[in-house]
Amino acid sequence: MKDEFKDIACYHTAALIPITDLLFIFPYLRYLQYKTTKSLRLEYLGDRKQIEHDIQHGAFFMTNHRDIVMDAAWLSFLLRKRYFIRPYMGVGDNLFAKPWIEFMMRYNRCFAVKRGAGAHAQLENAKHLSAYIRHLRKRGKSIWLAQREGRAKDSNDLTQASVLHMLTMGEEDFFSALKALNICPVSITYEFDPCDYLKAAEMQLKRDNPRWRKSKRDDVLSMKTGIEGYKGRVVYRLTPSINPEVDAMLAAHPEYLQLPIHEQMEKVCAIIDRHIHSAYEIYERGTDFDAYIESRLAKIDIPGKDEAFLREKLYEMYKNPVINHRRSLEFRVES
Fold it and tell me: Mapping DSSP to helix (H, G, I), strand (E, B) and coil, where does residue 315 land?
């Protein structure tokens, strides 16, 4: 490991990883599977052989962001079981708020995405992180990163152009740099989000006070709830590399090469979003779903509790993936 990357790479360099993997962490994740899910599946959208070919050559797994800890943990767990690979995982440095979470970080081969600094420091951190990710990809390593900073609390999963900007910083040709990453989007679908009531509460607190910010205590509560809470049926669905679609887009629209960089990024964000939205698992919601929503609403204890607003936001979290899934299918038909 190059010395210049030690500060962000420290969480996957411990010599004890193979021991903790075999004796504790892997069994612990299996325990969580049986305790907190009805089922946990790794599936595919499209040509499985093509997807596996992409993985064998090193993939950049980009997912929607449902849970602070478990998004990365489950993906690493599933890929290790099926392909005996464990991607390097980029996570916010706020995850290291408590020592008890460090064992998950070691298993997940995490590197730190630094947040909360001033504008100049943020830019330098982004350049450093971008260089480290390219360093890993040049070595053929697989990587995981969420499509956005922070979870989409309303489950309207949209890739942030700023993520693509960070990944390709310092490169002259955006599309060539992007294709070198070999982005393979992955959709994550929970039947039930254990943090749904916490997310709804955060949305009201933010609505009532735009300056409201989560505390470290809030982060720890979200981590604990996301790890231990019941999720029902959970599906991770792999999709092929976006590179062929980027090539097809540029062949059909060579004028895109002349677009401003932010517009080029938006075109690629749309491709990633369609992969993720198309791959969602859509769950049938029975007549008891209303009772479930009311039970989650009852768990919220905040000042000035606005039940109508909170109820709307809880329903919205479960409706948005269905809406986006349908739109992605309509786009494929029109194309």
Answer: helix
